[in-house]
Amino acid sequence: MAYKRQIDRLPIIPADAREHNVVCHYCIVGCGYKAYTWDIDRQGTTDPAGNKFGVDLAEQQGAETEAWYAPSMYNIVRQDGKDVHIVIKPDKECIVNSGLGSIRGARMAEMSYSPVRNTEQQRLTDPMVWRYGQMQPTGWEDALDLVARVTAAVIAEQGEDGLFVSAYDHGGAGGGYENTWGTGKLYFGAMKVKNIRIHNRPAYNSEVHATRDMGVGELNNCYEDAELADTIVMVGANSLETQTNYFLNHWIPNLRGTSIDKKQAQMPNEPHEPVRVIVVDPRRTVTINACEVEAGKDRVMHLAINSGTDLALFNAWLTYIAEKGWVDKAFIDAATKDFDKAVAGNRTSLEEAARITGLTVDQIRQSAEWIAQPKSGNARRRTMFAYEKGLIWGNDNYRTNGALVNVALATGNIGRPGGGCVRLGGHQEGYARPSDAHVGRPAAYVDQLLINGKGGVHHIWGCDHYKTTLNALQFKQVYKKRTDLVKDAMSAVPWGDRPRMVAAIMDAVRKGGLFSVDVDIIPTQIGQASHIWLPAATSGEMNLTSMNGERRMRLTERYMDPPGRAMPDCLIAARIANNLERVFRESGKADVADRFKGFDWTTEEDAFMDGYHQHEKGGEFVTYARLRAMGTNGFQEPAVGLEGGPVGTGSSTGGTTTGQQPGMVVQGPAIEGARGKEPVQQATAGSAAAPTPTGGSERIIGTKRLYADGKFNTKDGKAVFMETQWRGLQAAGKQAEKDKFAFLINNGRTNHVWQSAYLDQENDLVMDRWPFPFIEMNPQDMTELNLKPGDLVEVYNDNGSTQAMAYPTERARPKQTFMLFAYPMGVQGNVVSAGVNEFIIPNYKQTWGNIRKIADAPEAVRGLSFKSKEYSAS
Ligand code: MGD
Ligand code: F3S
């Protein structure tokens, strides 16, 4: 019997089941899956002709068989109005995951809306509006009319600066090129909204400004580089749990030494040694544990730095490597500028860095050697640098990001096989929007403006500040107060009187109230304060395009209906635009109304063709039909042409790919220039794809690595080194917080949970494992606080307080805890200060607080395992 899934047998997928391309819409990795659907009253048979796998299912299958799926991969959903069986299982042919699933993606089917099997019943099915003191269902027309009238009224009084927006900017679930274009065209095209923020941070900005300012886009390598690298440097990331199949399918082969053939084939003229791994992280993660088990302890170095001190380490690396002459001089001369300035400005001795970071001089020296000391035969080491939230949401984001890119540039490791300096990423990407230049830099600190009473109407798209913002407690207190003012005003209006309703809302807005519109797939925590909920469709319920961490773009095909009357976000944005146009026209503002033209889309493909196809680099080559034909492998952005068709002039190419199939890559010509004679793989065509009505038979040619030609994203094409001096804990108040409170409240993700658990909170597998957010603690600290495993604790400081469940682990250093981030039952953001960097990037990781026991472990904790998460080779 499958775990609490009430299934004791699973239907056989029939041979003629419909097949759809799916990219897991959860994390950045974007694993390829296939969705199979078929009529509810049928199933396949065991004979090879009767099932999708084409094998005799009456026979025992081997351990690695593909002719299998798990109960979590099964559901019954609606498709074109009818109930159908669905199986969503990993695709062996996808080059990203080669058939691997993760504990998140392999549950995509059971995380789908199914009235038949009672899964995700929380999904919104209809627009809802605040009426009679509660949220009540209504129709699209009614809801959108109110949204448009209040929005127009606020704009009339306060200008467009009175409209505040929170919106995702990514791909995958709640995002994708269609939806970022839809929202972008509304707020940056029809309007020029300035008070806008991104889903996970309080302003509209890049999380990685520095690398971009240096001319180095943050997703510049390909996943295969992790298989080719001599050394991998990982900073502030825990990829086994957070980029799972990238780690399992592309790091592990290198850690185990099984990618050696690939190395020899692609780089025949240099020696190849087993890989070395350096992980910079104040805590010991299961990723470090896995690296040690797979590669051997002597090849893995954990640099457990003092929280927030990465910058000093990177500057010391640069200084030492430059002193030793291990830099790539030819590359620096040909393709970069300001190297000498940066080396002089950032000079940091090993001793100074040791004092700041808490590492030993030997550790810093040895890690620099692993990064840059030439291999035997004086061959230059291939080092890949990868970072994520430990850096991005860490101390002094901008400079620290720049300091790491400095080291990668100095050692000539960008744009070359086995190299790269990349963020590991969170969601997939799917950004296509009109220019945001009017937002300015630094962008408005939207959360603070809301706290300070600014704005009259707030449109929220697929994000939940209540769980995922910094300074969350204060934000919630103020937001509730402001939106309650409007709720009370709305409740006082007699039935059916729209003008009076709008007047009452505006009266409340003038008194400091805020009208809140939440576009989401579920009722969120911030939504409890909202006045209107607009139900959105998610991936699989609409056609959706996005790209992953190696810029691999695919189309997830619609395989089921959205719940009830839910719609794709791009169409919701279009309908808001249509209604604003109507309302402005009715009020005699024809010129304003005209700005909302061009939203006559009826499908998500219309939005895609209007947005990505017309506006993104290489977009002219990309259509749904071509993507569909290229399956789960897609192509790597930017597109530079069509095989058998026109070829564009994409710069930064060299190393181009079509949808790579295993075995397709052949050795291409060496690209000469700044890089010297680097071998660059070029892909050949795969087998001809099936012709489709709009040219699907032509394969899109993509770009395997950026900057392989040594030309960077600056006016003169040269990458710029950055001066990045150490300035302590940079965000206001952080040092004082550290001095005052006993515990580091480090925080982040865990394997089971996707994001703020917005879907997981209705899933037994996750909720039984984590009924409350854990806080990992050193056992000695727990003893001192009289805590047993699973006891409930309060975490508090001057920013606020929150609650968690104590989880003992020897891995935690004394007085250094790690709390699950963004969990509904205990929001870590409550204790994160409002302190940000100069570009309004939050600093979650450096948080200090005190801890006290609240209660013994509650009932839900009974039966929970607190065993070590470490695993051994045996
Ligand atoms: P985190 O757990 O946030 O995950 O992916 P990651 O960045 O890999 O943090 C990574 C590490 O930063 C932690 O181990 C923490 O100890 C370390 N850290 C803390 N302080 C410092 C410091 O001062 N210096 C350094 N060097 N490291 C420090 C996040 C990524 O995960 C994101 S952004 C998203 S949106 C996705 N979300 C997600 C999810 O919700 N669940 C799962 N399972 N996977 C996910 N993948 C993505
Ligand atoms: Fe999904 Fe693969 Fe990530 S299965 S959650 S995209 S590792």
Automatic annotation (TrEMBL):
<dbReference type="GO" id="GO:1990204">
    <property type="term" value="C:oxidoreductase complex"/>
</dbReference>
<dbReference type="GO" id="GO:0046872">
    <property type="term" value="F:metal ion binding"/>
</dbReference>
<dbReference type="GO" id="GO:0022904">
    <property type="term" value="P:respiratory electron transport chain"/>
</dbReference>
<dbReference type="InterPro" id="IPR006657">
    <property type="entry name" value="MoPterin_dinucl-bd_dom"/>
</dbReference>
<feature type="domain" description="Molybdopterin oxidoreductase">
    <location>
        <begin position="123"/>
        <end position="578"/>
    </location>
</feature>
<keyword id="KW-0479">Metal-binding</keyword>
<dbReference type="InterPro" id="IPR006656">
    <property type="entry name" value="Mopterin_OxRdtase"/>
</dbReference>
<dbReference type="Pfam" id="PF18465">
    <property type="entry name" value="Rieske_3"/>
</dbReference>
<dbReference type="Pfam" id="PF01568">
    <property type="entry name" value="Molydop_binding"/>
</dbReference>
<dbReference type="InterPro" id="IPR050123">
    <property type="entry name" value="Prok_molybdopt-oxidoreductase"/>
</dbReference>
<keyword id="KW-0408">Iron</keyword>
<feature type="domain" description="Arsenite oxidase subunit AioA/Iodate reductase subunit IdrA 3Fe-4S cluster">
    <location>
        <begin position="24"/>
        <end position="119"/>
    </location>
</feature>
<dbReference type="GO" id="GO:0003954">
    <property type="term" value="F:NADH dehydrogenase activity"/>
</dbReference>
<dbReference type="GO" id="GO:0051536">
    <property type="term" value="F:iron-sulfur cluster binding"/>
</dbReference>
<feature type="domain" description="Molybdopterin dinucleotide-binding">
    <location>
        <begin position="744"/>
        <end position="832"/>
    </location>
</feature>
<dbReference type="GO" id="GO:0016020">
    <property type="term" value="C:membrane"/>
</dbReference>
<dbReference type="Pfam" id="PF00384">
    <property type="entry name" value="Molybdopterin"/>
</dbReference>
<dbReference type="InterPro" id="IPR041632">
    <property type="entry name" value="AioA/IdrA_3Fe-4S"/>
</dbReference>
<protein>
    <submittedName>
        <fullName>Arsenite oxidase large subunit</fullName>
    </submittedName>
</protein>
<feature type="region of interest" description="Disordered">
    <location>
        <begin position="675"/>
        <end position="697"/>
    </location>
</feature>
<dbReference type="InterPro" id="IPR014066">
    <property type="entry name" value="AioA/IdrA_lsu"/>
</dbReference>
<keyword id="KW-0411">Iron-sulfur</keyword>
<feature type="compositionally biased region" description="Low complexity">
    <location>
        <begin position="683"/>
        <end position="697"/>
    </location>
</feature>
<dbReference type="InterPro" id="IPR009010">
    <property type="entry name" value="Asp_de-COase-like_dom_sf"/>
</dbReference>
<dbReference type="GO" id="GO:0043546">
    <property type="term" value="F:molybdopterin cofactor binding"/>
</dbReference>
